[in-house]
Design goal:
Number of strands: 3
InterPro entries: ArsR-like_HTH, HTH_ArsR_DNA-bd_dom, Metal_resp_trans_reg, WH-like_DNA-bd_sf, WH_DNA-bd_sf
Keywords: DNA-binding, Transcription, Transcription regulation
Domain HTH arsR-type: 1-95
Number of helices: 6
CATH architecture of the domain at 3-78: Orthogonal Bundle
Oligomer: single chain
Pfam families: HTH_20 (PF12840)
Largest sheet: 3 strands, antiparallel
Distance between the termini: 37 Å
Strand content: 5-15%
Order of helices and strands: HHEHHEEHH
Protein name: DNA-binding transcriptional regulator, ArsR family
Helix content: 55-70%
CATH topology of the domain at 3-78: Arc Repressor Mutant, subunit A
CATH class of the domain at 3-78: Mainly Alpha
Shape: elongated
């Protein structure tokens, strides 16, 4: 990923609703979700979610696909991986052990469906 692409992705993710959409679609996995279900889940109007989906697609963070009469959106895991790799590329000034906790935290872990209590 080039710096220009990373800036576009970060700009898209810096908006609250778009960040919520990406996190929702990451949780949904490759199956993805229809725009209406996304709008309902993030509590915005269908026209508003369409605006955000277009921006996220342009940034390479999500990917649409047609299924019958619906458009299903899913996280673009390649784009997300490339963004993380961009950040970590020159990590830690030659000391990879510094980055190990961040990499371990990024490992896929199944959700238990329970939210952590705030301290």
């Amino acid at each position: 990923m080039e710096e220009r692409q990373a800036r576009t992705a970060f700009a898209a993710l810096s908006q609250e609703t778009r960040l919520r959409i990406v996190r929702l679609l990451v949780q949904a996995g490759p199956e993805g979700m229809a725009a209406g279900a996304i709008a309902e889940a993030v509590e915005v109007s269908p026209s508003n979610v369409s605006f955000h989906l277009k921006d996220l697609e342009h940034a390479g963070m999500i990917a649409p696909r047609r299924e019958a009469r619906s458009i299903i959106y899913s996280a673009d895991f390649t784009g997300l991986r490339d963004l993380i790799a961009f950040l970590m590329k020159d990590c830690c000034a030659g000391h990879p052990e510094i980055c190990a906790p961040a990499l371990a935290a990024a490992q896929c872990k199944p959700s238990t469906g329970k939210k952590k209590a705030r301290a």
